[in-house]
Predict the structure.
Amino acid sequence: MPALTSAHTTTEAAAQKLRREILQALKDKKLKAGDRVLSERKLAERLGVSYMTARKALSTLVGAGLLERRPRQGVFVGPGAHRNGARTLKRVRGLFYLEALTSFYGRMASALTRSLADAGVEIAWSTAAEFVRPDLRERLGQWDEDAFVVVGQMPPALLEALRRTGKPLTFVDQTSEGFAADHAVLDNEGVGFASAERFFATGRKRVAYAGGEVNPGHPYHDPAGRAEWPNSVMRGMGVRRAYITRGMPLDESILFTIPSGKYIRSYAAQWFGDASSAARAAAPDAIVCFDIQAAAILLQEAQARGVRVPEDLGIVALGDLPEWIETCPALTHYTVDWETLGREAARLCLLRLEEPEAPPRRVVVPWTCNLGGSAGWTESSAPSNV
C-alpha cells in the first residue's frame, strides 16, 4: 500500500491489523464478548508501534463498537463485537491513477480509508505502477476484494478487466460512461460555468478558457495525439454553457488547451506583447484556468507586459492554491473539500456492499470560491460555493 500523506496512516494500519486479529479470534472461539485484550504497552510491542499509536488504535475499535473501555480495568471485547465487526470481513481495493497518493488526493484517500475502517471495511490501495504491468489479468485474479474504488482516469484494459469481475465499482473524481457503477465526482462543469458567469456578470465580454493537456510524463499520455484531461473537458463545457446561457458569441480560438508553462507564455506574448497591436484588441478580458500553475504564469506574464490585473484582465484558477505559489497570494481560485469527496465515496461503496442490486448512485461535490484580487470579484458577485 502506498504511503498516504496523513498522520492517521500508522494508526489506521495498526487498527486494521488489530481488528483482523480480534475477529479471527472470535471466529475461532479463542475470544468471546467480555474477554480482556492486551494492554496498550503490550499491544504496542506486538504491533511494533508506539504506545500512543497503540492507544489510538484501540480507541478506534472502541469507537466502532468492537471493543469497550472500562475505567481502571482495561479494554475488553464488546458485547456486540460479532455484530459490529461483521462487515470487517469485507475488503475493498482502491485503484489510483498516479504512482503515489500524495497532496490533495492523499487527503481524499485518508478520509475514504477512515470512513471504511469505521464501518469495519478494509481497503488496500494499488497505484499506476502496479496495474500498468503486462501481467494485469493475473494480478487482478489474485485480488479477492469484494468491491473496487477507482480514482481518476484509468487505461481501458483495466476498466474492462474490472467490468468482467462483476464486482461493485465506485468511481471517484472521474465519470465512466457505460458502467453500472456509483460515482462520487466534483462539479467540474459547474465550476467552469460559475467562474465564467461571474466574469460576465461583472461586465467582461471575452472570457477565455485555458484547459489542461495530459502531461507527456504521465503513464497514459498518448504521443500520437493531444489528449485533454477529462475534468478539463468538463470545466471547458461549463465555460461554453455560460456563453450559450447569455446568448453571447463565442470565439473558439480563446478556448484552448496547454501541455506546459512554455505554451501558456506564448499565448501571453501573443495577446499582450504589443499594446497597440490588433492581437491586444482581440485578447480576452478574463481567463478561466484549468489549474493553478497556468493561472499563475498568465498573471505574471500579463503584469510584466503592463496589463492591469484585474482592471483590464481578470484571472481565476480552478484548483487548490499550493504553498509554492508565493508570488500569487491574491489569486482568485476555487478549491475542493477533498475529505468530503473521500467520505462520500466511502458512503457509496458501503451502500453498494449492503444493497448490491440498488440502482447506481451519483454524488456531486461542489467547489468553494476563495476570493483574491486577480478576478475583480466581490462577495456579492462570487458566492462561497458553486
Observations:
- The radius of gyration is 25 Å.
- The chain has a mean pLDDT of 82.
- The longest helix spans residues 9-27.
- The chain has 14 helices and 14 strands.
